[in-house]
Amino acid sequence: MDTRGADPQLSREDAPGNPRAGGQAAASPEDTLASVGEVAALARIFPRLPDADAALVGPGDDAAVVAAPDGRFVVTTDTMIHGPDFRLAWSTPHDLGWKAAVTNLSDVAAMGATPSALVVAIAAPLGTTVTALEGIADGLRDACAALSPGTGVVGGDLSVSNTLVLAVTAFGDLAGRAPVLRSGARPGDRVAVAGALGLAGAGIAKLFAEGQSDASAPDGLPPGTQHGLPKVVPATGRQAGILSPDVAAGRAVRAAHPAIVEAQLAPVSPLAAGPRAADAGATAMLDVSDGLVLDAGRIAVASGCSLELFHDAIEAEGRTLRELDGSIGGDAEDFVLCGGEDHSLLATFPPGATLPEEFRVIGEVREGEDGHPRVTVGGRAYVRPGGWDPFDDWNGAIG
Ligand SMILES: [Mg+2]
């Protein structure tokens, strides 16, 4: 079904195919995609979505029209699938909307652009409650409002699937800047980061360690939730008896370790720092999605240079992490170096550049040894506990 033509003003009573059409039943927490129909569900979702300042024609027509004052636009997309990318036992619908927005918005910011608009496609099981879909919409709205005011949702699609899928496409405007690529780092540049390092990685490790019950299915998903949202009504607790064990375990972990679990489930990316870095002359930039060492390696390979991460800086990042959550202990530096999904911005700046206030220097760009780009920590290759050397075969391993 194509939601771009849906009229946000359409009432659920008017919805074609709505089994309750003509009735005056109020919205109920029991309503599902199957019971109210897609048009009525959309009529409840649309008013919750954020408006985009750049929308010349917003939702409600066959397609949106978005201003691109620069004459070019930045575009990126990211798909989140229940199972590989999130667990419904751990993420609330609001978390999912928030994270789907942030993962895309941070990619736009990492190019040096200001996000302008999102397009959102959701495929959900028929048993998904409309309340859950509203929660996803609220997460999208709140992430835009908090991190990128003026960015909004200009269109989308709602479809049915056995597995919950959120696919978001984000657009951005460069406002006359050159895009900041991964390939521009040069020896002598400083390496700097804006945003958290290691929090989200520590958070997912904690969820895996303590947020699963013995009742978890072999694939790690709680029984009965593999193909749909768990039937949880936290507001009333009326159905608390059917909380899956993993939902309860996940909530306990979240309550005990809020800093790291929130960073994993609802990450905060310093989006405004992206355009500021571009204005300050950043030579290369990306968002840290797969871990500092791996993502720094992507800049190293693309730029044909080596990136040295200062030992003292990594130790300081580890201390920050331990101060936020004392349970992390000796693993903190590993989370700093290898934890992904923080969606911080990693950039290189030429000598003499004045770094935007969000950035802190953690290293420097050096000549590649024998032309071989590497990432080093304190002058040495970093070897993870267990022996995996992320510096082996850079060119083959890093895409
Ligand atoms: Mg990225």
Automatic annotation (TrEMBL):
Domain called PurM-like N-terminal: residue spans: 60-172
Annotated Basic and acidic residues bias: 1-15
UniProt keyword Transcription present: no
Signal peptide: none
Binding site for Mg(2+) 3: D62, D107, D287
Positions that bind Mg(2+) 1: T77, D78, D157
Keywords: ATP-binding, Kinase, Magnesium, Metal-binding, Nucleotide-binding, Thiamine biosynthesis, Transferase
Biological pathway: Cofactor biosynthesis; thiamine diphosphate biosynthesis; thiamine diphosphate from thiamine phosphate: step 1/1
Misc remark: Reaction mechanism of ThiL seems to utilize a direct, inline transfer of the gamma-phosphate of ATP to TMP rather than a phosphorylated enzyme intermediate.
PANTHER family referenced in this protein's UniProt entry, alphabetically: THIAMINE-MONOPHOSPHATE KINASE
Stated name of the protein: Thiamine-monophosphate kinase
Lineage of origin: Bacteria, Bacillati, Actinomycetota, Actinomycetes, Micrococcales
Gene designation: thiL
